[in-house]
Design a protein that fits this description.
Layout lengths: L6 H7 L4 E2 L2 H8 L13 E2 L4 H14 L2 E5 L17 E5 L6 E5 L4 E5 L4 H9 L3 E2 L12 H6 L7 H4 L2 H4 E7 L5 E4 L25 E8 L1 E2 L3 E9 L5 H11 L4 E7 L1 H11 L12 E8 L6 H14 L3 E6 L3 H12 L1 H7 L3 E7 L5 H15 L5 E5 L5 E7 L6 H10 L1 H11 L15 H7 L2 H14 L12
Parallel strand pairs: 2-4, 3-4
Antiparallel strand pairs: 1-2, 5-6, 6-10, 7-11, 8-9, 8-10, 12-14, 12-15, 13-14, 13-17, 16-18, 17-18
Helix pairs in contact: 1-3, 8-10, 9-12, 13-15
Length: about 475
Amino acid sequence: MPETDLDPFREALGHGGVLSEAGETEPYVLDHRGLMRGETPAVLRPRSVAEVQEVVRLAGRLGFGIVPQGGNTGYVGGATPEPGRRQLVVSLERLASLRSIDPLNFTMECDAGMILAQAQAAAAEHGLLLPLSLGSEGSCRLGGNLGTNAGGLQVLRYGMARDLVLGIEAVLADGSLFGDMRSLRKNNVGTDVKQLFVGSEGTLGIVTGVVLKLWPSQDYRATAWVSLAEGAPLPEIAARLRRETADLVSTFELISGNSLALVERMRGGALGVAAGSGGALLIELSASIERIPLEELLLACLEGLMEAGYVEDAVLAQSESQRRAFWAIRETIPEGEKAAGGSVKLDIALPVSALATFLERAGAELARKMPEVRLSFYGHVGDGNLHYNLLVPEGRERVAFTHEVNEGVAHTVYEIARDLGGSYSAEYGIGRFKRDLLERYADPTRLTLVGAIKRALDPEGRLNAGAML
């Protein structure tokens, strides 16, 4: 493509606003998991909402497609420009400011390019909590979090990204601006249009701003590492914890014995905690005031679970450093999988009541169809999100094995989840990697509605073509 085709964008964005050399664009065209290498004529880096509008108008006039990109930390290729589509990447990394915080209204207004951890820190400076928390929070950006409807560690108590949104600002395919940045919790003025953009992966508009709900800072915690007995009923344990702690459970994480062993192997030594024959749980209660006896509540509940034979052992964190050590183990599991040769990640959503049945049925089918494969499963099972991962066998090439699983046994796992009322995408989204699954499993009427919305807002199909649809 002639470089002069990019001159209008250079004029609009100024110095550093257009990256077109291969070395400059490389980080933006390789998906986070290294499963897809995309292609783009250039990466555009606007600094304001007005500049986003201008590049969208220019792209339409010059015949380019657009792929919005936040931190490029997604797992399903949703922010990767496809070869042959002539798609420009529009990165929001320079549109990354905190606009305002209202401590009395418990809200914050941010640019969509703001890094999640920076938004969390800004809230914390005012004694407030932004509860969205992910492993990639140090590099993912709010616009991407909204585009994929991110979940993370505290969905059980605070909900998905969708549940945290009060207002959205988005640039549409024609360059016009949709603005609904009010910080109202009650606002019944008809169809809630802003929610169309949450989970739409940049196919309906480029989110440029967001108003988010905040909570009082949760400065007091009780955290336990729990070794489970074989056959421990996860749904009953989760429900019992919620009832007996006044629903103060913020996280309820399952960790399988295999997942823990990967971390131990990577670190080259004992971890100080163990999985029981039924795996392990990492449980945390939190509150904004010291007067709530969190440790007492958690201990009483754990004692009851031990008496019932569900728990082999439990360790209550005695310091903040010990609490962080527990969480470091949980957050190191993906790195442990990578060190062991990688994994194929199946992101399963289930009703909590169906977790045990799913693990039994899916495990039996995998043992029958791929007996050589080891599992590493863990996740936010308090809200029904299970990361069900197949470790790449020794000697196998990761990408080739990924394609083999995704074309074969993954469908068996997904069908078991669907039979139990679950789905094949809990928090990763659809992107380009799960597009065929949406077409295969979605209700036809739902697909028709999604297509109609897409055509209404983006009739020429310029926004993130190839993602989802």
